[in-house]
Amino acid sequence: MTAAWPAPFAARPVDATVTVPGSKSLTNRYLVLAALADGPSRLRAPLHSRDSALMAGALRALGATVTEVEGDGEYGPDLEIVPVPTRGTAEDSAAPGLGKASVDCGLAGTVMRFVPPVAALVRGEIAFDGDPHARVRPMGPVIEALGALGVKLSGPDGTEPMSLPFTVHGTGEVAGGHIVVDASGSSQFVSALLLAGARFAEGLHLEHVGPPVPSLDHIAMTVEVLRGVGVEVDDSVPNQWRVMPGPIRAFDVRIEQDLSNAGPFLAAALATRGTVRIPNWPSPTAQVGDAWREILPKLGASVTLDGGTLTVRGGNRITGADLAGTSELAPTVAALCALADTPSHLTGIAHLRGHETDRLAALVNEITRLGGDAEETTDGLVIRPAKLHGAVVRSYADHRMATAGAVWGLAVQGVQVEDIATTSKTMPDFPQMWSRMLAQHTDPAAGTDAEARA
Ligand SMILES: O=C(O)C1=C[C@@H](OP(=O)(O)O)[C@@H](O)[C@H](O)C1
Ligand SMILES: C=C(OP(=O)(O)O)C(=O)O
């Protein structure tokens, strides 16, 4: 096992300009759509990370071609995609079907949920599995929905699957139509079916029945992306989505930087009472991370978006806040709340128990390990002010727990993070990017107030 990463302590307020790699959610949505499109597509400045590599690998296993080509992105090449051979295409009539293929989902929710409906649209037996923890991530509603749409799935030894591992027996055709899904466990159940829905013979009418769907912004992103490639989607009735049958238009898109991953860098401004600027902040954007503009002022920062650059200035203190539905931003938010001098209540995030790890338990454990005061509620966390001390923060194979550890390390001496390499899920160069941010102390006059913060 590799040594824990000594999280750098910031002796002075950070004063830095940073950019981050492409959005995971946009990259993996566009990869899926490119695999189902009516011709070759191009992604400019996409994310290159474990989750995007797993998605590319999955689509290759289904017969798509994904090729790296030179581009102008700061974080790696562009991608060109030739779609999977689905029934009725020239590729399909020339090919006998895939036979057996296998897909490694790693720990990527987007791969384990978004790819099985695509597998149903090719001819072959596609076996899905992933990391040990992926096997306990909720998957049932996608499996049941595909079953209701007439797709055959089998578990090990022919059992009825409810989670990974399972095999999709793709016939190249899905009839489509009306299905009822309980998507209270993850918005990805809905996005998965919508992304492929236009390629079902009758399209798709998906109705959610159950407790509220979390991360609705991610479904709105799916709808926006689908409309952008010529798919007609009706989301005018709450909890219902209709995707009309039809082609997915081949496309050439530039992927926005990942605003959720911008979070830990922006948090550095609050944790050190410094300033962090992110140029090329997309606006408007469908990314959930745009919510930093509302969240960070509630925690005591000043935030401006001027000339396309987002500037976050930390205040003299971090204030606690009551925040609902922060979705994948929650671990970074919780990291800041543990450094705040008033209590915080985070609500509407019960489903984080089914993320890369049980994030509510993990956050309580690690905040407590640092000397903090945090407690789980039925649907979130209460975090109360306490003086933190150094400790080894465990990351639970969760990239956002690891980056939370980095945020704590800026403000608390002696923090180390176990398995920092887990950040490669969405940000392979995270430690280097963090060091580069800290090396940009351009304003020595900003002085040091480390004593006051430590
Ligand atoms: O569709 C997506 O790209 C995502 C949806 C969300 O999933 P949940 O609805 O399970 O929170 C989010 O947390 C995840 O990181 C990415
Ligand atoms: C929940 C997350 O990932 P996934 O796409 O694997 O669900 C996340 O990145 O915070």
UniProtKB/TrEMBL annotation:
One of its GO terms (molecular function) is 3-phosphoshikimate 1-carboxyvinyltransferase activity. Pathway: Metabolic intermediate biosynthesis; chorismate biosynthesis; chorismate from D-erythrose 4-phosphate and phosphoenolpyruvate: step 6/7. The active site is at 328 (proton acceptor). It is an enzyme of class 2 (transferase). Its main location: cytoplasm. SUPFAM superfamilies: EPT/RTPC-like. One of its GO terms (biological process) is chorismate biosynthetic process. Phosphoenolpyruvate binds at residues 24, 109, 137, 188, 359, 400, 425. One of its GO terms (cellular component) is cytoplasm. It is found in: Cytoplasm. Residues 12-432 form the Enolpyruvate transferase domain. Keywords: Amino-acid biosynthesis, Aromatic amino acid biosynthesis, Cytoplasm, Transferase. It catalyses: 3-phosphoshikimate + phosphoenolpyruvate = 5-O-(1-carboxyvinyl)-3-phosphoshikimate + phosphate. The keyword Aminoacyl-tRNA synthetase does not apply. Its EC number is 2.5.1.19. 3-phosphoshikimate binds at residues 24-25, 29, 186-188, 215, 328, 355. Belongs to the EPSP synthase family. PANTHER family: AROM/DEHYDROQUINATE SYNTHASE, PENTAFUNCTIONAL AROM POLYPEPTIDE. Catalyzes the transfer of the enolpyruvyl moiety of phosphoenolpyruvate (PEP) to the 5-hydroxyl of shikimate-3-phosphate (S3P) to produce enolpyruvyl shikimate-3-phosphate and inorganic phosphate. This is 3-phosphoshikimate 1-carboxyvinyltransferase. It comes from Sinomonas puerhi.
